Amino acid sequence: MKFLLWFNEVGIKDIANVGGKNASLGEMYRYLSKQGIAVPNGFALTASAYHYFLRQTKTAQKIREILKGLDTRNVNDLARRGHLVRETILKAKLPKELNEAVAQAYKKLSQDCKTANVDVAVRSSATAEDLPDASFAGQQETYLNIRGVDSLLKAVKECIASLFTNRAISYRVDKGFDHFKIGLSVGVQKMVRSDLAASGVMFSLHTETGFKNVVLINSSYGLGEFIVKGVVTPDEFLVFKPTLAQGCPAIISRSLGKKNIKLVYGSQAGQSTKSVRVAAAEQLKYSLTDKEILQLAKWAVIIEKHYQKPMDMEWAKDGRDGRLYIVQARPETVESLKNRQVIEEYILKKKGRVLASGAAVGKKIGQGRVNIIKSASQMGSFKSGQVLVTRMTDPDWEPIMKKAAAIVTDAGGRTCHAAIVSRELGIPCIVGTALGTKKLKNGQAVTIDNTAGETGYVYQGLLPFSVRQVNIKNLKRPKTKVMMNVGNPETAFAESFIPSDGVGLAREEFIVANYIKIHPLALLNYHKIKDLRVKRLIDKLTVGYRNKVEFYVDKLAEGVAKIAAAFYPQDVIVRLSDFKSNEYANLIGGISFEPHEENPMIGWRGASRYYSKEYQTAFRLECLALKKVRQEFGLTNLKVMVPFCRTVEEGRKVVKALADNGLKQGVNGLEIYVMCEIPSNVLLAEEFSQVFNGFSIGSNDLTQLTLGVDRDSQLVSHVYDERNPAVKKLISQVIKTAHSHKPRRKVGICGQAPSDFPDFAQFLVKQGIDSISLNPDTVISTTLKILAEEKK
Fold it and tell me: Which residues of the chain have pLDDT under 70?
């Protein structure tokens, strides 16, 4: 029986004796340090030592008696019994031989680190934890900045007692684990001085959708406890794995967190850690450099490859030596285990008044009556089916979290405790609402909607919704390419699981209106703006950016990149901005740069903007964003599409403007398409084919301009019909002309008609169209109809 093992003596096969956490640390220390991954050294008090302690002190029998007849749903009874168990363990003395083994190992670790009484982290590692179907996340305690033998032995005993925290007892009962068939190993690891730098959590997949081609990194200043506990909203980064492997700096998304406080080493005797405020200037900076983000992402890929499964990792940066370290790694236990053959979709049928919003966790809808719980002492009042609203949760709250219909917190990010546990429980959660506990009222009926992307909304009232499940296991692919219309980058990863051939229409307008919100010319002419209100709005949105123009380029690039990454390596055709002048005027600062037009629908829009002297500097920003996506992020599956191009000469001017701004047709496989939405595009299809690589039919505008109908007018709406014979004749004609051109030109359609009218999609198949791009919710049903038509 060995009471103690060093990290270089254990590996992943030793979970039964050192638990998942310590086994994984040993595995990485032994095998992955050779690949450049830094893991701080340490040792583990084994599960054998734990069971020896229970036997020698006759503690096991006392615990059995205390837990006999426990009902975990009775929160007060659980708390009382849990306290008695922990007190029993803490009163028992560690056997002499265990004391000596820990003291000698600590002395050796201090010598190896060349530091008297070296600072260590003391972590519990249950022998059944971190299994693929049972994460035990946050079930036991961790103690940081422990120094000296006496303090270490005290922390070891407290770790053992933490095997019987209320939430751990409850969790084991619910999962069907025997309390005494689970052992506890205590890990003792050299501390990384992240209190002087930063730390965080990362996953080798996207935690909300299970999309496996990205690494998600969360980061904040100081020790990592505040991220896990949800005290701070961390910085968040997404790195695209396929092009990272090609050497590209593929950080496709950045989000600045609210890092107003941090956990650091305590300065007084007996105080291991303390909370301090972060300087205002530091809060506005990212807590990691690009080089460090990419380094962590590369390590995540190496760790995932070694374990051959998606991983959940904790990392820390040492403020003294400037190096990054991995301090934990465990299998990801929620998204990676989902059945991807069945697509589950929650559909909100009606929207209400928004009461609060924050980061969405879990793409579901939940509803119930609000119960605001401000402290653990109030947990007894929480009833099953209520919506738990609180500032933040910690592991002690797990017994009531599993009874909640949904969870809403003021603080925290996507890797905080509330987010992790709600994912595992399969209930919707919104974190980081800031004022949820103030804006919501006890007993208020609410609906939590996480289906709109990365932002979750708390609506007033119990709103109607439905759940749809579709099995795609045996869905065949038609000869006609079935693509998707995607505008919201936040939903792209989830939509990538719908069987398709890529994106036929990626709209920039949603990104500009929702991510950027500012007119590009207002950013270019920021110093000339006299309206102080507009300036304040711009300053608020561009916080952290000295160069306002870079904000526009970065946010547009990131939005487009998420869509391109979601469907990589399939084609993603991005339509250049197609706002009308009245829509541009609605952007912040836009009114000063836009003309008043009586009919903006057929005014200064699309191609006519891009080469005009009034707008060409703004168009350059758009080009720089797309260039960044293709060249820096390596997403060369991105293609460009020009909307509302009235003449062949306009087409040539736009192609030249693109080339002048680094997007040259043909270079690195860049294809440029033109929207076919004006009768002139059809009548001169041969000439347009000499300029562009293909056509994408915009049936909405083509119908409007063919029939002379204002599509926004209710008075003539009965005339507006994409299936009108005149419109169908033009579509047939452009397909025939494009296909007969040498070289053959592709023709797709990205209008609304194929999504709304299955018979229209069948007509397009008969005409030999190359691709049909549909709204995501109609892809599967329309695919089945296309397969039936092709079979004929």
Answer: 128-140, 395, 751-752
